[in-house]
């Protein structure tokens, strides 16, 4: 169980560092500030606009992402 806990702790720390870096740069953590996803959608993923980031609504800003997550 300690290996599992260590992996979870590493993953959480990595995610928190990612959020902190994106907040400092005022970029959306989901799309890295691009405002869109560069992947092709499939039958399991459906967005109203296929490439628009649902986290920041296509703006690429951390402030918009933060408003939509809270």
TrEMBL record:
Family annotation (SUPFAM superfamilies): DnaJ/Hsp40 cysteine-rich domain
InterPro entries hit by this protein: HSP_DnaJ_Cys-rich_dom_sf
Descriptive protein name: DnaJ-class molecular chaperone
Annotated source species: Mesobacillus stamsii
């Amino acid at each position: 169980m300690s290996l599992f806990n260590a992996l979870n702790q590493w993953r959480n720390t990595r995610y928190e560092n990612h959020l902190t870096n994106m907040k400092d740069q005022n970029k959306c953590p989901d799309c890295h500030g691009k405002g869109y996803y560069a992947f092709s959608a499939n039958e399991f993923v459906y967005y109203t606009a296929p490439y628009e980031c649902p986290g920041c609504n296509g703006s690429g800003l951390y402030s918009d992402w933060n408003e939509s997550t809270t």
